UniProtKB/TrEMBL annotation, chain A:
UniProt record, GO biological process: cobalt ion transport
Transmembrane segments: 20-39, 77-96, 108-128
Keywords: Cell membrane, Membrane, Transmembrane, Transmembrane helix
Protein name: Cobalt ABC transporter permease
Domain of life: Bacteria
Topological category with respect to the lipid bilayer: Multi-pass membrane protein
GO cellular component: ATP-binding cassette (ABC) transporter complex
Main location group: membrane
CDD domains for this protein: EcfT (cd16914)
Compartments reported by the entry: Cell membrane
TrEMBL record, chain B:
Organism of this sequence: Knoellia aerolata DSM 18566
Residue runs in coiled coils: none
The protein, known as: Cobalamin biosynthesis protein CbiM
Keywords recorded for this protein, A-Z: Cell membrane, Membrane, Transmembrane, Transmembrane helix, Transport
TM helices/strands, residue ranges: 6-28, 40-60, 72-98, 110-128, 140-165, 177-204
GO terms classed as biological process: transition metal ion transport
Length: 253, 230
């Protein structure tokens, strides 16, 4: 873990979640998070239950917890925001110890914290169990426009190549005693970005020529399409069914 | 900058997803004119570049650092339609493979950074280019820089507007606008300066690659010099 392009999340495995076809997983993920977002504002207990579901799904992936929890740092800015909310929101106030805070702010901060954590956990469960190739096949299967899937496929494929190029440029800068400390280093950073663009673009041209010489006509053939059985769908949609039930309960309560 | 899940309510998330899908569908058709049949490999590599450029940190001072958003930079370099596609793919990969940015907020993020971020910067650049036509290719980096600077507070304002519609907390609107604008004007300065310098360095070596400089950079005809030069 920990390349220059941020931690690559995918972890090989054979758990139930790993074996599910990517398109079914993606639909399940999207539905589940959408249903959690749709929960009424004050349904904190229901949200907590959904957080429990998310933890259960992560546990089912059998990916080490250390790996999962390290990824929760992407949430940090919103944790800060959630903590600030009680002090900046308006509306009826309440006293917590020595300070007066907005009741709506506390509620909203709590809701944001629970929802964001639930969704990050589910997204991590998806990302750790789905290889980039399966993601591309899954999007293809779901009928995402071919051009967009191709761009995504090329991006994912060359992420490592361009990433290590950027890393080599960083080593080259630093071996010439460059240390980014102040605004005076901006021209160097910007020139690196410029050089990286030219190299990426030229690589794109070479890739295109190489593909043309191998018979590329602007379409990518689908060699082995994904398929999901009824039990695959049932497993992939199980969290969403739980979320739907919770949503109905929260609305009728 | 990435909006997480639960920040905006479900109807707003769905509405922005529809908006994003429409914008991306339009861009898919139009990007063909910018890159012809090379679209997929080239746009893919430009998307990797945007992704990597977002990883380049520049020190802001006091131990903190900022990073490039890259919407305007991409629009000036490869054209706005391709830039929209690149930003869309970058955001999708960040959400799906790196768990960065909400899944249901993907539409919101594409709308904000891929549509508003790219197009506000591009429109500003086009207006500047028309006004300063006589300045020639030398002014391209400066125009790109100004456009990049403006695109950041505009995107922040768009976010504030979305928040006013679908936000879940009663924060006074004026206070939110002031805070977001103040903060993002600062971020915009970094974005603008880095974009200016980066476009400048590309114009110096490969002016033919800069989409926004087409028609401005006068092609130098091949000169055949005879005789030994002194």
């Amino acid at each position: 873990m920990g390349g220059q392009l941020g931690p690559h999340l995918h972890v090989e495995g054979t758990s139930v979640v790993h074996r599910l076809p990517a398109h079914a997983k993606l639909v399940g993920l999207l539905l589940f998070v959408l249903l959690v977002v749709a929960l009424p504002r004050d349904a904190h207990g229901h949200r907590l239950a959904m957080l429990g579901v998310a933890f259960a799904v992560v546990a089912a992936t059998r990916v080490p917890w250390r790996h999962v929890l390290a990824r929760l740092v992407v949430e940090t800015p919103f944790v800060v925001f959630a903590l600030v909310l009680p002090f900046v929101a308006v509306g009826p106030t309440m006293r917590v110890g020595p300070v007066t805070v907005s009741r709506d702010g506390v509620e909203a901060g709590l809701a944001l914290l629970l929802t964001a954590t639930t969704s990050v956990l589910m997204a991590v469960a998806f990302a750790t169990t789905t290889s980039s190739r399966d993601l591309v096949r899954g999007l293809q299967r779901l009928g995402v426009p071919d051009r967009l899937v191709q761009i995504l496929a090329f991006m994912v494929r060359y992420l490592g190549v361009v990433g290590s190029q950027a890393q080599r440029m960083k080593v080259a800068r630093e071996s010439r005693a460059f240390a980014p400390r102040s605004v005076r280093s901006w021209p160097v950073v910007a020139a690196s970005a410029g050089a990286l663009f030219i190299r990426s673009y030229e690589r794109g041209e070479r890739v295109h020529l190489a593909m043309l010489s191998r018979g590329y006509t602007g379409r990518m053939p689908v060699t082995d399409p994904l398929s999901a059985s009824a039990s695959d769908w049932a497993r992939a949609l199980a969290p969403s069914v739980l979320a739907l039930g919770t949503l109905v309960v929260a609305h009728t309560a | 900058m990435h909006v997480p899940d639960g920040f905006l309510d479900a109807p707003t998330s769905v509405a922005t997803a529809v908006l994003a899908a429409g914008g991306v569908a339009l861009a898919l058709g139009r990007a063909r004119r910018e890159l012809d049949d090379r679209t997929a490999p080239l746009a893919g590599l430009v998307a990797v570049f945007v992704f990597a450029a977002q990883m380049l940190n520049f020190p802001v001072g006091a131990g903190t650092s900022g990073h490039l958003l890259g919407g305007t930079l991409a629009a000036v370099l490869v054209g706005p339609w391709t830039a929209t596609l690149c930003l869309t793919v970058v955001l999708a990969v960040q959400a799906l493979l790196f768990a960065d940015g909400g899944i249901t907020a993907l539409g919101t993020n594409i709308t904000l950074m891929g549509l508003v971020g790219v197009w506000s910067g591009w429109l500003c650049y086009v207006v500047l280019r028309r006004v300063l036509r006589s300045a020639g290719p030398a002014a391209v980096p400066a125009m790109a820089g100004v456009a990049a600077f403006l695109s950041v507070p505009v995107t922040a304002l768009a976010f504030t507007a979305l928040y006013a519609v679908g936000g879940r907390v009663p924060i006074p609107f004026e206070a939110l606008v002031t805070a977001m604008l103040g903060w993002h004007t600062l971020i915009g300065v970094g974005e603008g300066v880095i974009t200016l310098l980066a476009v400048g360095s590309i114009i110096a070596t490969r002016p033919d690659l800069v989409h926004g400089a087409r028609g401005l950079a006068t092609a130098r005809p091949l000169e055949i010099r005879t005789g030994a030069s002194a």
